[in-house]
């Protein structure tokens, strides 16, 4: 479990992020290189971020894995992350 959660509210507003769940998920994903398994996809490093892991790392949100998946898709659609499936794995990297 991620014990401490901090949010740069000014930056979130500047980026147009207003969904608190997505803000906290993005904060967790920003540290994926320290806890997630790397996956090479098209010569790029992505990180396998299991939905169940995200749910358990952020229990205060009470999110089910399928809800986490919808948030990942939304973050990708809004260009905050690159999200690809490798088999059944959700793999992400922060958008450039």
Structure description:
- The chain is α+β, with helices and mostly antiparallel strands.
- Helices cover 43% and strands 23% of the residues.
- It is built from five helices and four strands; from the N terminus they run H-H-H-E-E-H-H-E-E.
- The chain has helices at 9-15, 20-29, 32-35, 51-57, 65-77; strands at 37-41, 44-48, 81-86, 89-94.
- It has a four-stranded antiparallel sheet.
- Helix 2 (20-29) crosses helix 5 and helix 4 (51-57) crosses helix 5 (65-77).
- The protein is globular.
- The termini are far apart.
- The model has no long low-confidence stretch (mean pLDDT 94).
Provide the descriptors you would attach to this structure in a database record.
four-stranded antiparallel β-sheet; 5 helices; 96 residues; globular; 43% helix
Helical run tally? 5
Assess the beta-strand content as a share of residues: 15-25%
Shape summary: globular
**Through-space gap between termini:** 27 Å
Q: Give the SSE string.
A: HHHEEHHEE
Backbone CA Rg: 13 Å
SS-derived structural category: alpha+beta
Major sheet: 4 strands, antiparallel
